[in-house]
Amino acid sequence: MAEVRVQGTNVYAFDGTTITQLACLTAIDLGGDSTTRIEKTCLDETQSKSYLTGLADPAQGSLGFNLDTENESHLQLIEWAESKKDGLEFYIGSSEGTAPPTATGSVVTLPPTRSWWAFKGGISTPVPAFEADALVGYTVTLERETTVAFTPKT
User: Could you tell me which Gene3D superfamilies the record lists for this protein (predicted)?
Assistant: First the structure.
């Protein structure tokens, strides 16, 4: 059994031009998608309703980090969240490898040496947290536009 550890996971965001590694995140919550139901019950049915599976409704999630003002990706996340940046592509690389994704123009290539989770979305609402005897923490809301696609390593 090849269990995959969370430690060693890398998160990348592609804005259509540049791939940015979102370094030193402390939490990733992709949220739970829901699926609509389309009722197809006939009028002569007397026992129970019938349904078809409808469209997926991508969820909200969040990204968390302890603010490091020397970490460019933390400052970029806050800037994107403040401007409610949409149209980002996110790539989460498993701890099975270290190779980053690459971009040629607008096409992103994922190395096959690690498993990947990919989705499109935006971020908004940067919220700092101040607690006693702690680092300044930040949470940004992740607004997914698509479901999460999983690509296992080969």
Answer: 4.10.410.40
Terminal-to-terminal C-alpha distance of the chain: 15
Q: How far apart are CA 153 and CA 2, in angstroms?
A: 11
Residue whose C-alpha is closest to residue 31's, from 114, 121, 128: 121
CB 100 within 8 A of CB 18: no
What are the structure tokens assigned to 10, written together?
Answer: 């890398």
How is domain 10-32+58-151 classified at the CATH fold level?
Pnp Oxidase; Chain A (2.30.110)
Question: 88: closest CA among 25, 142, 29?
Answer: 142
Residue ranges per structural domain of the chain: 10-32+58-151
The whole model's pTM is what? 0.90
Cβ pair 10, 92 in contact under 8 A? yes
